[in-house]
Amino acid sequence: MRDAFTKLLTPIRRIPGGIRLAGSTLYSLFSLSRLFTDKLKIPPVFISIKPQLNNNGLALPLSNKVVLGETYTPDAPADVSDVSVGYILGHEIGHIHDYRGIERGFIHRFFMLFPFLFFEYLKNIIRSDLWTNILFRATMWFMSYTLYRIVLTIILPWMIPHMLEVGIPVVVEVQSLILTALIWNTYMLGIKLRSEIYANFIACDLLAKLFKTKQGAILMREEKFYLVEIILYDIIFTLAFVFPQVALLLVDFFTSILGFYAFIAASSTLVSSIGVKVSKQYGK
Question: Which residues of 160-184 are buried (b: 16+ CB within 10 A; e: fewer)?
Fold first, then answer.
């Protein structure tokens, strides 16, 4: 069985000239996809090939579809060239399984996958990249503002007595904003990191069990970037929350309180769209 999929299971950087998903190679890809979905006990997925996604991939859980590029070349980013097309396919099917898997429930889908599924839903009904992005960002902004109001009126008032007990100064408006950014950014980056780790695990597991092949890792370069970003954001915002002097230093750095607020708002907006990158992907 492995011989039929040799090219699809070979790391892309080892294939001179890369690999093109057409003809017999494409038919082998369809067979490999069916093998993966049967192993995961989920319905077969639709596969679409688009040149716009060369050296990349996209999973659309609501449509039960995986979109792959037409060609994959050795000069692709390391996260792509170090693995095979089979691994990339397994990764995208891993995203589908994350949503479709029989053990997944409504709460999991809502809290762990909501931004990605919501973007895909908007894309399906609006059919316009511009308006999809506008509505998605507006919705994310509204949700983050709602969180801010909850922090300001409920969470922080509850925390203030405990903060005073341990000697943390209280600056309500600034700390409300910082705590909101801390929660929101950790959530948005955290669910993206979790999603990618899950898909990587599925891809590694499929290749190991079906072909005794070790490729990829649970934490690839992209996931390490998300992890470092989460840690840096959390350190900065935690210090600014616990020590208002740090917040004041940041205010001075951004020349005014409005500049600091603009920085937090911009970072939160950026973080909310990280899961939907330039190619509007859910997945790598």
Answer: eeeeeeeebeeeeebbbbbbbbbbb
Question: Which residue would you say has higher pLDDT here, 217 or 181?
Answer: 217
Name all domains of the chain by residue range, CATH numbers in brackets.
2-109 (3.30.2010), 118-272 (no CATH)
73 within 8 A of 12, measured Cβ to Cβ: yes
Whether 43 contacts 64, CB under 8 Å: yes
Per-residue confidence band for 252, with pLDDT thresholds at 50, 70 and 90: low
* pLDDT recorded at residue 64: 93
Q: Which position has the token pair 């603009």?
A: 262
Phi, psi values for residue 45, rounded to 5°: -100, 150
Q: Max Cα separation, the chain? A: 70
Q: What is the CA radius of gyration of the chain?
A: 22
Asked which of 28-42, 107-121, 204-218 is least confident by mean pLDDT, the reply is 107-121
Closest to 283 (Cα-Cα) out of 38, 113, 159:
113
